[in-house]
Design a protein that fits this description.
Elements: E1 14-17, H1 18-37, E2 47-50, E3 56-59, H2 62-68, H3 74-90, H4 94-113, H5 118-139, H6 147-158, H7 168-181, E4 183-184, E5 187-188, E6 193-199, E7 207-209, E8 211-214, E9 226-235, H8 255-278, E10 283-286, H9 292-300, E11 304-306, H10 311-321, E12 325-326, E13 338-348, E14 351-359, E15 365-371, H11 374-396, E16 400-402, H12 406-419, H13 426-437, H14 439-447, H15 452-466, E17 470-474, E18 477-481, E19 489-491, H16 492-510, E20 514-517
Parallel strand pairs: 6-15, 9-10, 9-12, 10-11
Antiparallel strand pairs: 1-20, 2-3, 4-5, 7-15, 8-14, 9-13, 13-14, 16-19, 17-18
Length: 519
């Protein structure tokens, strides 16, 4: 063939192959994992993330940290996807999942150095993950998930996070009350729980509102600010003079014609206002504009009106009050109205919020999160959101397991015990998986100021003797004990998802031996 070289890639492409590709990908994955490692546990530290525009985020929430980081390496981005998957599926455990993924990669790197093939490592990891899932199922506490366990789950998820001046115990009660409000025979409708934040008070002012909050203000200052036993109308219509879709010009030849046109418009305005007032509506939420003259008339009639609401707000109001959206005033009938025990407006600095409380449908609740600064409110919102998700997971996804590293100790012990039954070099990968799992309790110990090796030895010893051992951190106390007795528990779904997503990401990265990048 003449010996001419055959080029299949462009000259601008960069290619990294073999061990160099593996090393690059594994190093990137480990670097991302290490970035969140110090945030794990009740003594975890916070990270300050500063964007190009100068925006600052202070948090120890793993998912938030990874989302805010400006990551370009494709393998590192896979670890971010692990956290995102964990957050979307169960709402917590993102740091655990990221740490586990990083450790699985670190263990794989050592196995590669010992000439264990990547396919063997992947097969071993997947087999170990199945053992881990079985171990989590066996760890699940017996009996139904009662209120006491739900409170423990919520408090455990928020311990160590930035909750301002309010305790995790107090917030846990608010979170569990919110979940119980929207719990039905089919489970928890998480979409019916909203979170509204407002700067300007201590975090201790955070409260549960049985209804929804809308960031709007009345269209007229003279309207009532507090309406009890309210009849509520939702209107998809402009409350004013009707305008056509076609541009048209009208010729006015005399003062009489102008006067007649103005009188006709005024009559139409009065008719619209009177129709709304006569309908019996006490509160009107409109998705379109409300003419100032209509608003003035309705204010005189004692009707509270809001305009230009979003579809999301209207859906929330409909869900809470039972009101139906109406597209024309003449179609408004008695069965279209919703009701609420109280609709009130409250002013916070320059902002105004509408509270729709005690709606007839009673399907929606709102956690009204307060804080002295924007950073406190943001972090408190993240903590509350995680707590809501884990309580929902505990109820809907099957039980809870001991926390404080006890689940990981039990999983690692079970994986090591069963690794003896795995033949060939795959056994090395199964044992490596157990070593990676140990990274979680070791990290908890290091972040609590303990020697991670000594703590791991004590945890294993206690687990062998008592069957359950976690690292209990309470105030200045750091000891090995039964986490269930201390109220430290996690949803089983969090552990399942962390094992699953971390294993998938690590095995995907480990199998890559060629990276081709176009410039």
């Amino acid at each position: 063939m003449g010996g001419q070289p055959l080029f299949i890639l462009s000259e601008d492409s960069q290619r990294t192959s073999g061990k160099d590709a593996q090393d690059s990908n594994i190093s990137a994955g480990k670097a991302v994992s290490e970035a969140v490692r110090t945030t794990l546990g009740p003594r975890g530290m916070d990270k300050m993330l500063v964007s190009d525009s100068g925006d600052v985020v202070i948090t120890n929430d793993g998912a938030t940290i990874l989302q805010e980081m400006d990551i370009e390496h494709p393998a590192a981005d896979m670890i971010v996807e692990v956290a995102e998957t964990q957050e979307n599926e169960v709402g917590d455990g993102t740091t655990t999942a990221a740490i586990l993924a990083g450790q699985l990669l670190a263990q794989a790197e050592d196995l590669f150095d010992d000439d264990v093939h990547a396919t063997t490592v992947v097969e071993g990891y997947h087999e170990a993950a199945e053992i881990a899932h079985d171990a989590v199922d066996e760890l699940a506490l017996e009996g139904d998930v009662d209120e006491e366990l739900l409170l423990a789950v919520a408090e455990s998820s928020m311990t160590g996070k930035g909750t301002g001046g309010v305790t995790a115990e107090s917030l846990a009660r608010t979170v569990v009350d919110a979940v119980e409000q929207v719990r039905g025979d089919a489970g928890v409708n998480r979409d019916n729980i909203s979170i509204q934040t407002q700067v300007g008070a201590s975090s201790g002012a955070t409260e549960l509102v049985e209804g929804i909050l809308v960031d709007e203000e009345p269209v007229n200052e003279q309207m009532p600010g507090d309406v009890e036993d309210a009849s509520i109308a939702l209107l998809d219509v402009e409350l004013g003079v009707r305008t056509g879709d076609v541009d048209a010009e009208y010729s006015v030849d005399s003062v009489d014609q102008l006067t007649a046109a103005m009188d006709a418009e005024e009559e139409e305005i009065k008719g619209v206002a009177q129709t709304v007032a006569d309908s019996g509506a006490d509160v009107v939420f409109a998705t379109d504009d409300v003419d100032g003259r209509v608003a003035s008339t309705l204010a005189d009639e004692g009707v509270l009106v809001f305009e230009n609401l979003s579809d999301d707000d209207v859906r929330g109001i409909a869900s809470a009050t039972g009101a139906r959206r109406v597209g024309a005033l003449e179609d408004l009938e008695d069965e279209d109205f919703g009701s609420a025990e109280r609709v009130r407006t409250e002013k916070y600095g320059d902002e105004e919020l509408v509270f729709v409380e005690g709606g007839a449908a009673a399907e929606s609740v709102t956690l009204f999160v307060r804080g002295g600064t924007e950073h406190v409110v943001d972090e408190l919102e993240r903590a509350v959101r995680d707590a809501l998700d884990v309580v929902t997971a505990a109820l809907d996804s099957g039980g809870v397991v001991p926390g404080a590293g006890a689940a990981e100790i039990a999983i690692a012990d079970r994986v090591r015990a069963e690794s003896a039954g795995v033949s060939g070099r795959k056994q090395l990968a199964v044992e490596a998986f157990a070593d990676a799992i140990d990274a979680v309790p070791r990290t908890l110990a290091a972040n609590a100021g303990l020697d991670p090796i000594d703590a791991l030895v004590d945890l294993r010893s206690e687990h062998e003797a008592e069957g359950r051992a976690g690292l209990i951190v309470d105030g200045q106390t750091r000891e090995v004990g039964d986490p269930v007795e201390h109220g430290t528990v996690d949803p089983a779904a969090v552990k399942h998802e962390a094992v699953e997503s971390a294993t998938e990401a690590a095995t995907l990265i480990a199998r890559i031996d060629d990276v081709i990048a176009a410039e």
